Fold this protein.
Amino acid sequence: MIASKSRRTDLRLRRHSQAAALVLCAVAGAALSWRASDRRAWAGHAGPVDRAKVAAVRERIDPNSAPAGSLRRLPGIGPKLAEAIVETRNRAAAEGRPTPFRTAADLDDRVPGIGPVTAARILPYLDLPGESAAAP
């Protein structure tokens, strides 16, 4: 039998490789230190507030008079539901009822596609004559 020589791998770095690794670690450490000192760089920072957008979110929408585009801004209301609200409102106006929606339950009862969950979700954003909901 022939004895096999085991090869031994030398994992030591040469002096210039050690210097390069040291420089790389120093640059990475400096970059991390600089990034940590910049407060705006962290994900938890809120950033500037756009007051116009905040006002638009707090705006309450009257489903008895709002156009379909405004109704689409309500959470869970897409183009089809917005058009359904407008059509139901127009039918009620043709029947002589000027305010077909006095409560969120009226939306649930009269508009196809709006159920109790959707009505409850949009209630804080609605300006209805029969309910006073808390602002969002």
